Amino acid sequence: MDTWRFSFADTEIQVDIARRKRIQNIEITCIFILHVILCNVLSAYVDEGNEKYGGETWQYHISASMVGEYSYHVALTIGIPIAFYISNTCLYSYTISKIAIDQVYRLNNPRQSYIAKLNSLNNWAVFLSAISVACCFSLIIWDVVRFPLTHNILALGLFVFILAYFITSYCFKKKLFSLAGLELNDTQIPLFILIILFVGLMAALGSSFWLVESPDAIRGANVAFAIFEYLYVIQVVYILTNGGMNAPDMYRNFDLDAMKYFPFVCVTTYLVDIAESPNGDNFN
After folding, report:
1. I need a surface site. Which of 77, 225, 226, 252 has the fewest CB within 10 A?
2. Contact criterion met (CB below 8 Å) for 90 and 165
3. Shortest CA distance to 44 belongs to which of 21, 67, 13?
4. What's the structural domain count of the chain?
5. pTM assigned to the model
C-alpha cells in the first residue's frame, strides 16, 4: 500500500485555510463569552419578576441566566449566530472529510466497502454534530423555568449526541489514516474531560437535593454546579469547533487546497478581505 509522500501543511493555501479557521474559532469564542456575560448581567440586574434566579437569589447557572424578560431574548438573539457559526464548522468538517476520502481512494484504491464505511462514518458524524447544535439552541428556547422536563431531556440528549459525535469522528479518522498508511496522533483527552465534567455536573446537582437541611451546603453545591456547567458547555463548544476533522493533522497529511472555495462564516475574515482587496482582486 502506498503512503503519503509529502507534507501539505506549509503550502500557501493550506496556511491561509488554517488561519481562517483559527480566526473563526476565536470569533465564535468571543461571541460565546459575550453571550454569557450579557445574560448574567441582565439576569442579575435588569430582569424584573425573575424571583427564582434574579437579585439576591441569583444562582449563577447558565440555564438560570436565560429565563428573564430581557436575558431570554438576548440569549435567543445571540444564540442564532452562534448556532450558525458552529453549523458552518460542522459543514467544514464534512467537506474536509469528503476531500480526504477522495484522495485515499485515488492513491490507494481500497475496497469499495472501506470507502462506503468511511462515507457512512462521515455522514453519521455530521448528523450527530448537527443534532448537537440543535440541542444547544433548543436549550435556550425550552428554558429551565417554563419547560424544566424538556430542558433536562435536551441537556441529557446533548451529552449523548456530543459523546457519539466525538467517538464517531475518532473512528472515522482512525480508519481514514489506516487506509492512507498514516499514523494517527489524535488524543482522546477532550472526551475524558467531557465525561469527567458531566459526572461532576451530575454530582453537584444531586448534592443540592441531598443537602436540603444545610443552606450553606446547598449554596456550595449550587456554586459547584455552576462551575461544572460552564466548563462543560465550554468543552462542548471546543469539541464542535476544534475536534475531529478540524485537527491540525488533517492539514499536514492531506491536500486541502480545494477548501479555498469553502464559504467560511466569519465577519473578521470578511473585513480583512475587503481591506486587503478594495478592488476584489484577491477574491476567489
Report:
1. 77
2. no
3. 67
4. 1
5. 0.78
